[in-house]
Amino acid sequence: MLRCRRCGHSRIFSVHFGSDDQSHVAVQRLVDHGRVPVDLPEVNLPESKRGGHLNRSEAIGEALRQACRRSPVTLALLLAAPVSAQDYGATAPEKPAGLNFDVGVMFDDNVTRSFGAGQKLSDSVFTLNGNKSQIVPLGDNTRMVVTGFVGAERYRKYIGLSRVFAGVQGQYQYRPSADFDSPIYALLARVSGDGYETAQRDGTRYSLALTYRKPLTDRIELFAALTRNQRHTASQVFSTRETSIRANLDYAWSSKVTLFLTGEYRRGDVVSTGLPTLANVDVATAITRDNAFSDTARFAYRTNAETGLATFGLNYAIDEKHALDFSMRRVKSTPFIQPNYNGAEHVSYSVTQFSLAYLFSF
User: Fold this and answer.
1) Where are the alpha helices (DSSP H) in the chain?
2) Is-contact 284 300, C-beta < 8 A?
3) Fewer CB atoms inside 10 Å of the end CB: C or N, the chain?
């Protein structure tokens, strides 16, 4: 789905006039082609940024913008009449085929999600992902977005953690109006299947979420989600449930650079792999031998914990179909149940990840 780089809106939900100069050209061509309604309401025209009065194109553009904000009918008239892309000049977007891919590499300093000497292991991960979305309009304010996706992760040292996966995601979206600052509410359902190098991790993942997306300014967009996740596998240890709440801010630093900051809180099951220590056994609700590691006998422990995640990243748009994405993530997880024997250490683990990805679409 092609998104407006200035405001982040889907073009199916809103009209974007482009830059000021492009807006004047587009409005003038609307006038030349008889596309401007003759009954536009009178407006209080502001002075232009150049300090003088609005010229004809600017005045008509301001009238159109105010009319569209006041009346969905005016907006519909502008969208419905047949006008070619050349009538809009540089403001007409290219319609994408909807195929998106990314290839990347990630460094993870704690793939075992454990703590202490000999238990905390690091590795590099190579990733490949692809997805295709289909938009199904349902009404003036609602639509469905169905996305199919596939991917693969290949670990350099601990190959048993490598996997392939595929799934489908559906979103029912509602937007109250076409105003710039109007939010998008969505109900999301997602299901995927995992195939690991070690069969004990094979299984299915399910997610159900309520999401909220809103532009705060022409440069800043807010996204929030409340999600319930479940994972079912052949092993009881790797079958988990959790609830999370997440918030993300995107800041368009420039036409090519977007900064993003994400905070997330999770509550539920986590799986840690480590040596058969008394502390690990004491906090575990389920235990099994972890076949992904062959260097020594390591065990996977499932426990109930709270987890905090913080991500900071930068996206650089090479052009409309190619981009680079860099991010750093910090994770901290602490079990609710702690060892209760004398001299027991506090159990928690932390993770730092660095990721670099190349994104492209067709």
Assistant:
1) 20-32, 56-70, 72-80, 85-88, 278-283
2) no
3) C
